[in-house]
Amino acid sequence: MTIYQVAKAAGVSISTVSLALNHPDRVSPKTRDRIIEVAGELGYRAGATVSERARRRSGRIAVLAPFSSYETYRTRLVGILETFGPHGVEVVVHDTPPATESPSPFLETLPVRGDVDGLLIMGVPLGQEGADRLHRWGPPTVLVDSANPEFTSVTFDDEQAGHLVATHLLGRGHRRLAYLHEPYRSQGLPSAGLQRLEGIARALREAGEPPGIEDIALTGNDARAARAQAADFVRRAERPTAVIAHHDVLAAGFLAGLRAAGTRVPDEVAVAGFDDGTLADTVGLTTVRQPFAESGRRAAELLRSLIEKPRQSPVRTLLVPQLITREST
Questions:
Q1: Which of 231, 220, 235 is nearest to 256 (CA)?
Q2: pLDDT value of position 53
Q3: Which residues on neighbouring strands pair with residue 244, listed in sequence order?
Q4: Is the pLDDT of residue 112 over 70?
Q5: pTM for the structure as a whole
Q6: Which of 121, 182, 195, 203 has a CB 3.0–4.6 Å from the CB of 221, allowing a cystine?
Q7: Are 43 and 137 in contact (CB under 8 A)?
Q8: How many other C-beta atoms are found inside a 10 Å radius of the C-beta of residue 199?
Q9: Alpha carbon of 115 to those of 40, 61, 133: distances in Å?
Q10: Please, where are the H alpha helices in 207-318?
C-alpha cells in the first residue's frame, strides 16, 4: 500500500497526504481525519511497520518536550542520553510549546515518523487522536509527566507532593495558603498544578481547616513576573501567610520580591516551591524534590525494553516526592 493509493482514495493530492502524516498542524482537521481514516482502512503504514522495525532498526529515537520553556526537561534529557548513549543510539530532540500556553493542551497533531525506533513524549498530555495515530503508525512510545492507560508512562506523585508541602506549612502554624503559578490558557488542562492543589486541599481537610486556597495566576512563567507579583502582594492588608509556587524559579522570584520590600521571610510570609534544583539550595528555598534525571533514565530504560519487545502491556511508574526544608519556611 502506497501514499499514492491513499491520496486517490481520499480524493486529495499526494502532498496533502504527506502533510497530514508529517506536519498535521498544517492540514485542516476535517481533511486530516479523512486521510487518517482512509489510510487506516487501506492498511497504509508510514515508514516501517512494527515487524519491519524489528528486522531493520534505524538506531534513532525521538524525544518531544517543552525544552525551551522548562529547565527540568533538559535535566531529564541528560538521563535519557546517559541510557541510550552507550548503545550508540542517536537521540533526536523536538521542542514543543508547553500545554499551559495552548487553548487545546492535548497533543493531537504529532507527526508520523517511520525513521525512529522509539518515541518519548514528555510534559504534554496525549489526546485520543494522538493516541490513535501512534497506535496506527507510531513506534513504541513512553510518556513522561503525563499518563494514558494505553501507553507506558513515568509520572510523579504530584498529589502527594502538594500534601507534603502543605502539611509542613500547617505544622509551622500557617492556615492561609496561596498557590502561585504560570498563566493557564486552557481551563481543561490535566495539570500537575491541579493534582498538587488536590493534595494541599487534602492536607487542609486532615487538619480540620477549610479546604480553600488562594489562586494567584502570574502574567508570565519567569522570576520577573513572580517578583512583580510579590510587590503587589506585600501591599495587601489581608494576605496569606504562606505561598506555594508551581516551580522553584517562580518561588525564587517571589522570594526576591518579598525581601526587596523588606518583608521578613519566613516570619511574615513563608515561601515554598517544587523541583529542588541548584537554585533552591542557593536561595535557601523549601521545596519538593523531583528525581528528574532518574525519571529520564527510567523512561529510557522502559523505551529500550519496548523497542526490543513492542507488544508488551503498558506499565505505569509513579515516582515518590521528597520534602526538602530550608530557611524560606
A1: 231
A2: 44
A3: 179, 272
A4: no
A5: 0.80
A6: 182
A7: no
A8: 21
A9: 19, 8, 16
A10: 223-233, 248-260, 278-283, 292-308
Sheet holding 90-95, edge to edge: 90-95, 60-65, 118-122, 141-144, 152-156, 316-319
User: Is residue 43 left, alpha or beta, with left meaning phi > 0 and alpha meaning psi from -120 to 50?
Assistant: left
Q: Look up residue 243 and give its three cell numbers.
A: 505561598
The whole-number pLDDT of residue 38 equals 81
Q: Which of 143, 130, 140, 138 is nearest to 113 (CA)?
A: 138
C-alpha 156/C-alpha 123 separation (Å) is: 11
pLDDT band at residue 7 using 50, 70 and 90 as cut-offs: confident
Alpha helices in 23-157 (DSSP H): 29-42, 50-55, 71-84, 128-137
Nearest to 58 by CA among 161, 140, 124: 140
DSSP3 helix / strand / coil % (the chain, rounded to 5): 45, 20, 40
Would you say residue 272 has pLDDT above 90? yes
Mean pLDDT, residues 15-32 taken together: 80
Q: Which three cell numbers stand for residue 102?
A: 495552548
Burial of 298: CB neighbours in 10 Å, binned 0-12, 13-18, 19+? buried
Average pLDDT over residues 7-36: 82
C-alpha cell, 126: 496525549
**Structure confidence by residue, pLDDT tens digits, 211-247:** 789 999 999 999 999 999 999 999 998 999 999 999 9
